[in-house]
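Possible regression after last week's pipeline update?

I re-ran a chain I had predicted before the update to compare outputs. Posting the input and the new output here so someone can diff against the archived version. Not blocking, just want to make sure nothing changed silently.
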Amino acid sequence: MELNPTDKQEKPDLAKPLWATHVRTMQNLSKSELVGFVELEVGSLAVQVPIRAAEAAMELPLASFEAEGDNCAILVRGDTSSKAVEVALRHAAQEAVRHLSKKLLN
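New output (post-update):
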């Protein structure tokens, strides 16, 4: 079965190197610039999660929660004062609460 040329453009190239994915970002989790902290309520615990600057990438969201072993951070790609980054930061904080709830409360 032959694919339509437009179908080929929509499907990801699995042979493409993964150097621009989360894996590369996670390896630099503790080396990226510290922007600040966000305090999250996880059950009855108050957990401070660092917010770190990350390189901008088209494939990744403006802000994302990343965990690497016992370390975790919210990575921000862009101007932290922009509304779009603020919204993405809120979503990343929600993801952080879900992850930390599983890790700390179980």
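Follow-up from reviewer: compared with the archived run. The chain has a mean pLDDT of 77. Marking as no regression found.
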